[in-house]
Design goal:
Helix content is 20%, strand content 37%. With 556 residues, it is of the alpha+beta class. Helix 1 (2-28) packs antiparallel against helix 2 and helix 3 (57-79) packs across helix 4 (86-99). The chain is flat.
């Protein structure tokens, strides 16, 4: 019926101009035009009747679709990372809907190529992107002044350097985004290729980064609300090293008649000094050759672990900011710290140590730097070199390096040297291997009777969260730090599961490498230069999706 009425409307609609044209011709030739006008009238009546009779369901459906499209467009306009015109945004929305392989997937800033985005922490991530918004006349004036100073001959300069100035159409910005792709903070423009150099994770509601502007680089401390609470010009005489418990460990160099030394202190997020700066032995800095060789970790109770394992000088120390003393240095201690099993709590930390004479043991380390051996020669006894995670370590008789070393023997041990989780149902039957625990859960790898690789998730009581699942086609499976998600990775594809084995999202993308680790942070997985929210199906970033990239995403 709908088809018939549609054809009838087309015929009637065609009859109206034909009848009018015939009537005009006859009028010009001074012939009767009554029949032609009757034809026009009949066509009009038939068209109106057909329109009236046409089912309204289609109209309602169209209207509903338009409303949904408008709602999606409004959301995209609120959350997008760029500042395009409304017309451009409409085009982008249309492109997104055409390229999506799953109508539950929403693309935010799909035409943006993000540069070196960070992992999420406390619901925030640092990104760098090219802002394609229009450049105002004042922007160009500022650009001219920045390059040419206050030269009166600005028009001549603009003529000669038009290409450089036009490049402002694609200037870099640094930004802070949430897990929905909404911009929380956005930096000023920069013509530098790199806008963000260093980016820390968020802790206690704040993080720091190094922003490279057009004429200088600066340290920024930013809170999760996007407030820049502190800035400091970066030079060779100042550096923020790390942060924890609301403190930012900083180093500053002073050189005058009486001294030439580096001092270490701590500031809060507003830049106020909370631990006075002073010189410490065993530390040396040379920021001229680079920043990558320095590591800094907060270990609890006012103690920072600092290490320089690259460059001209190498050192490893623990600084207690409460007592303002170096409590450990690897060059004068009998015990050499290999790794922390637990951070400082109630006056002590548990560490895996190496005694060059005896081998590896587990020690209790006090906040004053005192070592107390708790488990003698632990790792020598078991012949493995593996680290603890979440207080447990899997000990296998077949450790040969790498992540998965299937064996018919193996168990988890705690920091007291006690067997915590055993697997009698698999011993001497199915080769197996236990991955590191994360917040109470770990991936267990098993070889099935069919010779294929299976996984399950175990808790700290040794119970399985689901029956072993075949992971053929994947190279590796990782547990997220919060213990909520599994990421199965193969060449060109990723699938994220929850700890119950339920698939949440799958991503097919040619740049995914099976040998690379991908993990979920705050419910978001970072894949090269874009993010996927595994719960909401939101993709943040991605340049020319569906055009020059082999990419698809499916929500399960």
């Amino acid at each position: 019926m709908e088809t018939f009425l549609g054809l009838l409307m087309i015929v009637a609609l065609a009859g109206i101009p034909i009848g009018l044209l015939s009537a005009i011709i006859k009028k010009v030739r001074k012939k009767p035009a009554k029949k032609s006008l009757i034809t026009v009238g009949i066509s009009v009546i038939v068209f109106l009747v057909a329109v009236e009779a046409f089912p309204t369901d289609s109209e309602d459906l169209q209207k509903d679709g338009e409303e949904k499209t408008a709602a999606v467009s409004d959301r995209a306009a609120d959350n997008t990372l760029d500042n395009k015109s409304d017309e451009d945004k409409g085009s982008a929305s249309e492109e997104e809907s055409n390229t999506s392989h799953d109508d539950r997937v929403e693309y935010i800033g799909a035409d943006l190529w993000l540069e070196e985005p960070s992992d999420f922490s406390e619901g925030r991530a640092f990104v760098q992107f090219v802002d394609n918004s229009e450049v105002s006349e004042s922007d160009i004036d500022d650009a001219v002044k920045a390059v040419a100073g206050d030269d009166d001959d600005k028009m001549n300069y603009i003529t000669q350097h038009w290409d450089e100035l036009n490049a402002f159409q694609g200037r870099n910005r640094a930004a802070l985004i949430d897990t929905q792709g909404k911009i929380i903070w956005k930096s000023e423009y920069t013509q530098n290729e790199i806008a963000l150099r260093e980016k820390s994770e968020f802790r206690d509601g704040a993080a720091y980064c190094i922003f490279e502007g057009n004429d200088k680089s600066s340290y920024y401390i930013i809170d999760t609300d996007g407030n820049v609470t502190f800035t400091k010009d970066m030079d060779e005489d100042y550096a923020i090293l790390g942060h924890g418990s609301g403190m930012f460990l900083a180093a500053e160099h002073t050189a005058d008649f009486d001294s030439n030394e580096w001092k270490i202190g701590a500031i809060d997020k507003n830049g106020d000094v909370v631990v006075p700066f002073q010189a410490y032995e065993k530390l040396s800095f040379d920021f001229q050759w680079g920043y990558g060789g320095y590591t800094c970790e907060y270990r609890g109770e006012g103690i920072f672990e600092l290490a320089c394992l690259d460059g001209p000088d190498q050192w490893h120390v623990l600084i207690n900011l409460k007592t303002q003393k170096v409590i450990y240095s690897w060059d004068d201690e009998v015990w050499q710290i290999c790794s922390f099993i637990s951070d400082f709590e109630d006056g002590a930390a548990t560490v895996l140590c190496n005694d060059s004479m005896e081998g590896q043991s587990i020690c209790s380390l006090g906040t004053d730097g005192t070592f107390r051996e708790t488990v003698s020669n632990f790792w020598v006894n078991y012949g493995v070199w593996e680290e603890f995670s979440d207080g447990l370590a899997f000990v296998s008789d077949n450790y040969s390096g790498g992540m998965i070393n299937l064996s018919t023997e193996g168990a988890y041990y705690n920091a007291s040297g006690e067997k915590a989780i055993d697997f009698p149902e698999y011993q001497n039957k199915n080769p197996y291997f236990g991955g590191p625990f994360q917040n109470g859960y770990a991936v267990m790898f098993l070889e099935g009777a069919d010779g294929r690789l299976y996984i399950t998730v175990i808790n700290k009581k040794g119970g399985k969260e689901f029956e072993p699942m075949d992971i053929t086609g994947f190279d590796m499976v990782y547990m997220s730090e919060d213990g909520k998600y599994l990421t199965a990775v193969g060449g060109g594809h990723i699938t994220v599961f929850d700890v119950n084995g339920k698939a949440l999202v799958s991503v097919e993308y040619q740049a995914i490498g099976g040998e690379m680790e991908y993990n979920v942070h705050d419910g978001v997985i970072r894949i090269e230069d874009f993010y996927v929210n595994v719960e909401d199906g939101i993709v943040i970033g991605l340049h020319n999706i569906g055009v020059d990239r082999d990419f698809s995403i499916t929500m399960h």
